[in-house]
Write a structure and sequence with these properties.
With about 70 residues, the protein is mostly helical. It is built from 1 helix and no strands. The radius of gyration is 31 Å and the shape is rod-shaped. The model has no long low-confidence stretch (mean pLDDT about 90). Keywords: Membrane, Transmembrane, Transmembrane helix.
Length: about 70
């Protein structure tokens, strides 16, 4: 019985290390994914601000040109 416990203990330690290493690499991958998603959201927001400013400028330009003649 003691031999069985010893064998189980000897083989369980590397298995625990492998599982722990896997979970650590999985967590690191999730962090990288979240960082990329955050960067993407920042770019989307910046794009929205630029497009909004562009539309505002075009609207002001249309107002300055005056109303179009309707026939």
């Amino acid at each position: 019985m003691t031999g069985l416990v010893t064998v189980v203990m000897i083989f369980s330690i590397p298995l625990v290390a492998i599982v722990t290493s896997h979970f650590q690499s999985l967590a690191k991958t999730k962090v990288k994914i979240i960082e990329k998603e955050l960067e993407l959201e920042k770019l989307k927001h910046e794009n929205y601000l630029i497009e909004t400013q562009k539309m505002r400028i075009e609207l002001e330009k249309m107002k300055l040109e005056g109303p179009l003649e309707v026939k």
